[in-house]
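This section describes the prediction task in plain terms. A model, or a person checking by hand, is given the sequence of a single protein chain and must write out its three-dimensional structure as a string of C-alpha cells. No templates, partner chains or ligands are provided. The sample shown here is typical of the held-out split.
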Amino acid sequence: MKNYHILKGLCKRIFFIGSGNFWYEDEVIGNDNSILYKMLKYILFSIYGFMTLLEIMAALIGEFSEDEKSDSVTFAVSHTIVMIKIYSVLSNKESVKKLIHDLIKVCEIHEEESLMKKKYRIIKINVVAYFITVYGSAACFVFEGVRKTLEGSHFVTVVTYYPQFGDNSLTATVVRIFMTIILFMLLLTMIMTVDGFTVVNLIIFKYKFITLRNYIDKLRINFENELKENKSKIAAKKLTKGLIDGIIMHKELLRLSKEIDKAFGTVMALQLCQSSGSAVSLLLQIALSDKLTLVAEMKICFFVVALFFLLGVFLCNAGEITYQASLVSESIFYCGWHLSPSPQQRHLGKLVLLAGAKAQQPLVMKAFKMLELTYGTFLLVVRATYSVFALFYAQNQ
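The expected answer:
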C-alpha cells in the first residue's frame, strides 16, 4: 500500500476515537473544529485525566490491600506517562500534519510496489502484535477482577481513590466497571494516537532511505547500460541530473528526521522511562509476592512484555533508520561517476565528494537530545532494568 493510504487510514481511526484530525487535507476526513467534536474531545480527555488523578490519589493516600496498592502505583505511573505522551502529540498537531505531508511526498515517485508491500506487512505485524500484548494484559486484569468477585471480594481492574477497598456497594461496583471501560478506551487512544502512530511514521521513514538507496543504485545500472550503447555524454548528463535529484531527496530526509524528533521525540523518550521504571515495579510484584494467582502473574507478564515490545519497536526502528541512512554514502560513491568521460567525471566527482561527505555524518535519533535511540540502547535499558530489579530484590530478601 502507498504511504498516502496507510497514513490516511490511520488518521481516520485517530479522528473517530476523538483525538482530532491529523490529516493535512482537512476536508477529507472530518472537521475537528466543530462544537460537537470539541465537546466530545473535551469530555473524553477530561474523563481520562480525572481517572489518572484518582489513580495518583490511590497510590499516594489510598488504603488498599497489598496487591491493589501495587496495581495503583503501577497504573498511576504508567497512565501519567501515557497522558503526557498523548498531550505531546496533540499539542504538535500542526507539526504532525506537515510531517505527514512531507513524508508522503519525498521519494514518492521512486517507490517500488514490492518494497511497499513488504513495508505494509511489517507495519501490520508491529501494530497488531502491540495491540494484542496491550489488550492481552488488560484482559488479564479483567479476568483477575472476575476471579476476585467469584471468591466473594469485589470486581476491580483500575485501582482509583474512590471507591475505597472496603466499599462493595452497587455504586462502587458500577464505578469500577465504568473505570474498566474507560481503561479500554484510553488504551485504544494510546495505541492509535501515540504509540502506533509513532511506529508507523518510523517504519515509513526507514523505508524512505531504502527507496533512496535503490534509486541511486538504479542510476548506476542505467548509466552503465547507456555507456555500453556509446551514449557517454547523454549518460553523464542523466547521471548528473539523477544524482542531484537524489541529493535533494537525501537533504529532505535529513530535515524530516528533525521533524520526527519534534513530533514524536517526547513519546520515545518517555517510553524509555516508562518501560524501565514500570518493569522494575511489576517484576518485584512477581518476585516478592507468594500469593499471586496464575492470572495475576499473566497480567503482570503481559504488561512487561507490552512495555518492552513497544520500546524495542521504537529503538530498533530508530536504529534501523541510522543504519539505512549510513548506507546512502556507499550508494552515492558507487553511482558510476568514475566511468564517465573526463570533463563530466571531474564535475561528478566533486558532486559525489560533497554528497558522500554529507551522507557519512551519522543520523542518530536521540531521547532528551542525549540518549541515542539504537539497538544498543535497547539492550542497555534491558540490562539496567534487570540490574535495578536484582538490587531491590536482594534488599528485600
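For orientation: The radius of gyration is 26 Å.
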